[in-house]
Amino acid sequence: MKQDVLIAGAGPTGLVLALWLTAQGVKVRIIDKNVGPGPTSRAMVVHARTLELYRQLDLADAVLEAGHRNPSVNLWAKGKVRARISFSPTGGKMTPYPFVLVYPQDHHERLLEARLAALGVKVDRQTELVDFEHDAAGVSARLQLPDGGSDVCTAQYLAGCDGARSPVRHRLEVDFAGGTYDQTFYVADVEMSGATANGEAHISLETGDFVALLAYAEGRGRLIGLVREKREDADALTFADVSHRAIESLRLTVDKVNWFSTYRVHHRVADRFERGRVFLLGDAAHVHSPVGGQGMNTGIGDAINLAWKLAAVLKGQAPDRLLASYEGERIAFARQLVETTDRLFTFVTAEGSVADFLRIHVAPALAGVAYRVGGVREFLFRILSQTQLNYRGGPLSRSARGRVQGGDRLPWLGINGLDNYASLAAIAWQVHVYGEAQNDIRAWCAAKHMPLHVFPWGEQQAAGGLVRDAAYLLRPDSYVAVVADRAMPEALEAYFADQGIRLSAPA
């Protein structure tokens, strides 16, 4: 049977793509060469924007229940807390999820795979993509099966979610420009006790050493640190071999090490995210330092961006050119993310007395002062949580009225019982009006079978940058496509005509 989409790789990116496509009625086959979900925790952080998008498939509450909320980050230097950054006071005005959620990737993958199975799609395990051909008619992929035999899978599209060493990317001969840092990192999942085993995140800076602690359960957490010495036997190191100076400065006792590993950090972005009927997502398209826990969340964002576009094209509701907007919107963010995390990584890992002085004395003091400034707090939270990500100036974004423009994430309004994100659970085009919806916009939405949601006007709406009585056309991934002043439907009609998008499948 010919599939609509073949997905290579069943990490979080591939599983989310499969879930969002299946929910929209797209036939998918998802394969993975491994026996099951990864047995180790790897990526740990689920950010606010991912949780917002997870509401589309009723996933957010399950992830929240299973994960651990870190409400603050404590910055230590030389054994003393120099700054405490709390997310809730600022983030609570911007998102329903004003915290860093720590949820180990192995548990995350199991949840996503179970949800996919509930929709009738099973991951084909121990199945490896060996080769593929693609042309205007589709994709033909040769697979190696668990018993050593082979199979040919035909599909309309192929999604490479197969990691940093992506065979799909290599087969496409897409450059993966960037490099590998000299330093070696270690990660350790530990059982711990002491004053800092308190469920919050901690970063400890010491001369020639640092460690970050992320709690993910009572008395359990992950340590991320740097192996300062350049060693040829880094793969053979144990927890006992690495420096404990920064750990001891946290007054933390490690009672048991459940998993330990070392790794090198890469910073690369693929030159292309798509070629013909083949797409690259997640680590197959971009890898960067673990600073800020951005990697997995960015891959999930790739998947949700692509899923609604694939569904629209496969259903005949949009022309093929809609798919080109995937690369246009996601590659710029990936490049910016790699550049930002590269600067932070270089600062954290720089060696020498001057670097130590800046890192231990200057940076914590500046962080404490800066975080007391409201605008700085908001900016930092938006960057960390990915709620600042926008597609302004992109191929699908129109109009610039007010502070909220085409391409922006819709501001969240969550006070006095109001939740304008409740309607975003639908993976569909919709219109929001804040104030009064005029008769002409009501008539247009009714004629197009377009959901229209009208919310009262108030101070919070004005403070969020919304324009009174304007119509906000929202894409199926909940980003603003068009802002129509005074709710005039002509701008919405012109938008769909320009994009060649039909609001219902042809008969």
TrEMBL record:
Its cofactor is FAD. SUPFAM superfamilies: FAD/NAD(P)-binding domain. Gene3D superfamilies: 3.30.70.2450, FAD/NAD(P)-binding domain. Residues 3-340 form the FAD-binding domain. The keyword Flavoprotein applies. InterPro entries: FAD-bd, FAD/NAD-bd_sf, RIFMO-like. Keywords: FAD, Flavoprotein, Monooxygenase, Oxidoreductase, Plasmid. The keyword Transport does not apply. Pfam families: FAD_binding_3. One of its GO terms (molecular function) is monooxygenase activity. This is FAD-dependent monooxygenase.
